[in-house]
C-alpha cells in the first residue's frame, strides 16, 4: 500500500513541476525603420509569443532557426532565410508557435512604418515556454499509472484470495 | 550472502515503516523533485540584440551568441547546482538527525541493538536510505529538468561531476551528523550540530575568499566546479577538485570507521 501512495504522490510532484513558471523575454521598446530586433531563445518545446505594435501600427514577426538567425546577423536582411513561421503587417499577434526540435531559435520583429514622417515606433513583446512541460507530464502519467495499476492489482489479488 | 541481503532488506523495510512513515518520505522526495526542477527551469532563456548593431559587427555578434548558446546549458546546470546544494545543506542534517538522532534520543536505537541483527548492517541500512533519498531524488530531477530545458547538453562528464559534487558533501555531512548523534545521544544536538556544520561548509568559501581550491573542493565542491568552469576548464583546478573530492571521501571513510567503533561500543 505504501508503494501505491508513493507513486501517486510522486506523480503529483511531477505534475506540479510541469507547471513551474518558465523564464520569459518581455520588452517594450522603440524600433527604428528598417531595423530588426532579434531574440535568441532556448526553444525546448513550443513558444508562446505575444507581440503588438503601439497605436495600431503594423509589425511583422519571423521565427528563424539557428542557422538562419546567423544568416540574418551576417547579411542584415531576411532575404536568404526561410522562416519557420512568419506573420506580416499585423497590429498584434498572440499564439503558440510549434518548433520542429529543441534548439535555439531567433524571434525577429520588424516595424512596418507606412507614414514617411515617422522614423520609429513602439512595440511590446512577450515570449515564454508554454506550460505544462512535456517530460514531467509524461512522468506524472507513468507514476500515476504505476500507482493506480498497483492498487488495482492488490485489490484483484485480495479478491482472489478471499474467493479461495 | 543471501541471508545478509535478506536481513538488510528487512532493516530497510523496518526503517521505512518507523522513521520514514507516511507521509514523511513522500513529502521529502516530492519537495526535492519540485525544488530541483524549479531551479533548473530558472536558467537564462534568451539573448537580445538589434540588427544592424550599433556597437558590434555581424561576425562579432555570431561569435558572441555561439559562445553564449554553447555554454548556456553548463551555466544553467551550475546555477541550479548552487541553489540545490543550499537546499541539501538543510535537508541532509535534518533527515539524518530525524532518523539517527531521534532513535538515539528516545532509546529506540538501543532496542534495535538487542535484535539479532548486525550493528553494521543496522547502521549501513539507515545511512543507505538517507543517501538514496537525497542523491536519488536530486539525480532524477536533474535528468528530468535537463531533458526538459537543455536537450542539447552533450557533456555527460560535466553532469556527472556536478552530481558528484552534490553527493560527496551529502555523505560527509550525514556521517558527521550521525557521529554527533551517537556521541551526544540527543536529537537537538545532532540537529543543530549537523545544520551548523553543513551551512558552515557551504558558506565558508564565501567568507574566506582567498581559500585554496583544494579546501573549497572539500567544503563546497559545487563552488570549486564553478571556479573550474569560469577558469576555462583549467587542468590545475580540475586536479585540485579531484583531489578535494577524494579527500572528502577519505574523511567520510574515517568518520565511518569512528562511528562504527562508537556504535560497537554502545551497550544494549
How would you describe what is shown here?
The complex is a heterodimer of chains A (164) and B (268). Chain A folds into two domains: 1-20 and 137-164; 21-130, Jelly Rolls (Sandwich). Chain A is of the alpha+beta class and 164 residues long. Chain A is built from three helices and eight strands; from the N terminus they run H-E-E-E-E-H-E-E-E-E-H. In chain A, helix 1 (2-18) runs antiparallel to helix 3. Chain B is an all-alpha fold. Chain B has one domain. Helices cover 82% and strands 2% of the residues of chain B. Chain B has helices at 2-18, 24-41, 58-106, 108-113, 119-149, 156-184, 187-207, 213-219, 221-230, 235-265; one strand at 46-51. The two termini of chain B are 26 Å apart. The model of chain B has no long low-confidence stretch (mean pLDDT 87).
Subunit arrangement of the protein: heterodimer
**Secondary structure tally, helices of chain A:** 3
- The number of distinct structural domains of chain A comes to 2
Q: Describe the main β-sheet of chain A briefly.
A: 4 strands, antiparallel
Distinctive features:
A: 164 residues; alpha+beta; Jelly Rolls; 2 domains; four-stranded antiparallel sheet; 38% strand; B: 268 residues; mainly alpha; 10 helices; elongated
Layout of secondary structure:
The complex is a heterodimer of chains A (164) and B (268).
Chain A lengths: L1 H17 L5 E9 L3 E8 L3 E7 L4 E8 H10 L9 E6 L1 E6 L5 E10 L7 E9 L5 H30 L1
Antiparallel strand pairs in A: 1-8, 2-7, 3-6, 3-8, 4-5, 4-7
Chain B lengths: L1 H17 L5 H18 L4 E6 L6 H49 L1 H6 L5 H31 L6 H29 L2 H21 L5 H7 L1 H10 L4 H31 L3
Helix pairs in contact in B: 1-5, 2-3, 2-5, 3-5, 3-6, 3-7, 3-9, 5-6, 6-7, 6-10, 8-9, 8-10, 9-10
Give a brief rundown of this model:
Chain A is of the alpha+beta class and 164 residues long. Chain A is 35% helix and 38% strand. Chain B is built from 10 helices and 1 strand; from the N terminus they run H-H-E-H-H-H-H-H-H-H-H.
